[in-house]
Amino acid sequence: MGPLSYLVVVILLFFDGLIFGVAARKGAMSIVLIIVGILLASFIGLSIPFLNSGSLITQLETFIANAATRFGQIIYAFPILWIIGFIVGLFV
Question: Count of domains in the chain?
């Protein structure tokens, strides 16, 4: 990947965080209600069959390893830029 493609990825990552921040601000009550619904469902014995903490962590590790191989050292800037975009989105 050339230097221009890294710049495009960084800009898109920032805007992804920005959009997610705006959506989180708009949907804060929905998020709370979803969490309450999931907790209530787990209390009565229902669960999401394909989602458990073991497989989630394994999938996350695989994703990070693949991204680090593909993008190189710029991968360390991704969470920082996404968080900055998220915070800007919350307050816009």
Answer: 1
